[in-house]
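Honest question from a wet-lab person: if I give you the sequences of every part of a complex, can you actually get the arrangement of the whole thing, not just the pieces? Trying it with mine:
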Amino acid sequence: MGRTLCFELDGQQHQAGIEKVDRKKVYGWVDKKAVDADGSSCYFGALSSDGVHIFGPGCFEMGHLDDEGHWIERSELNMVDEGGAPLEKVPSSFKAPIGLETVVSPEEYLMYTAKALYELAAPAELLARVKQIDGLFQFPYNYSDSWSPDTAFLVENEDRLFLVVGEPTGFDFIGPDQIEVPLPLSDEEEEEEEIDFGMF
Amino acid sequence: MKEIHITDSRKRNSRVTLTSRRHKVRTFSVDSELRPVINARFVKGTLATDLTVLTKNCSNEELARKMIENDPEIDVELFGKRIEETSRIYLNERNEPAHNVTQREEVFSADGTLQEEREKRILESNINTECALNWGRLIPKKKFYNKFAFTAAYQLAHGDGLTYDFLFNMASELAEKDSFMMLSAGEEGNEPLVLSRNGTQYRAFLEGRIKDDKYLLMVHLTNLEMKPLKKEDA
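Yes, you can. This is the full assembly:
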């Protein structure tokens, strides 16, 4: 297990190590390899729009500019929401205990997609409490200090505890008069593929 | 617009709309006086100033001497220049644009062992073919929601009164049974869904809810089980 989270429940604190559940570690992966006519390996580079300069990996760096084109240091950046209201930077969830106060139904949980999945090395008392409640614990979660914390859930499966970092789907009920004009879906590109998903 | 060709429990089929999420929390970068800040890409160097190129025909000591004399590691014309549009190209081992590039795949097991090398596989989308997705088996929602990490979701939506009835009834049936319906593709009805060409293969579960005359039909997609990482702990 890597880093440790501290959960606070009924006045008691429970330490739990977390480890990311990576598809690669569970199912393996597929690497794409490009070769030229001679059979030698190729890699992605970039060509400038005038066709004069060739860039390799690591040739670019991102930076920030104000509206007059002046350089802004990353440390000077602030964040605002869509309405322009300043956002407070929220400390990482690893810096303070996470209060387990909100319980939601599986239906509420299913209104989120999983951005990340972690396995928790949780003490037996915490696991027992999670199994006991009718629903799931929901709490704000920040892997590192950030302006907009995610929503996470504690999910128990077969006596194992997992932390699911969720992203709201934003879906809502549709009535008969609401003919949907959907947003176009972006084409997916994937670098890895599953090689085994034999649970059915 | 994306469409899905789907069958209901009465084996009636229709093509309906598949919509993506539409409310994403958005934040914007500003400076200390809350003025907008833009993200931009700048040039750090080119292949000609890359260490591997610079050390190709000279030793580190020689390069150190050249760096003191005339800064070969810095392209003074380009360094720090803002760059927007570039084209993605393949480069060969000699850092030259490559031609007649073909793709191959290396398949690794979870422990990192190379299992197979093969030609690149093309996966075609299979959600809107002649063969409609079957109404599969029902799985109790409460016993099942914690078995997988649902990494993506889409909503089914109607385009007219007929498809409204079709989808409302589907949602109503699933809500009444408090179950997911497993959606699979292919003639045998056992293949994972591929939403876009060369997209991710997903196992898919349809969930339905109703509120008065409104319905919510979601396809939950997963390619990751909630299971322990270490086999000895399983």
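Two things worth pointing out. Residues 124-132 of chain A form the longest helix (9 residues). The longest strand of chain A covers residues 112-121.
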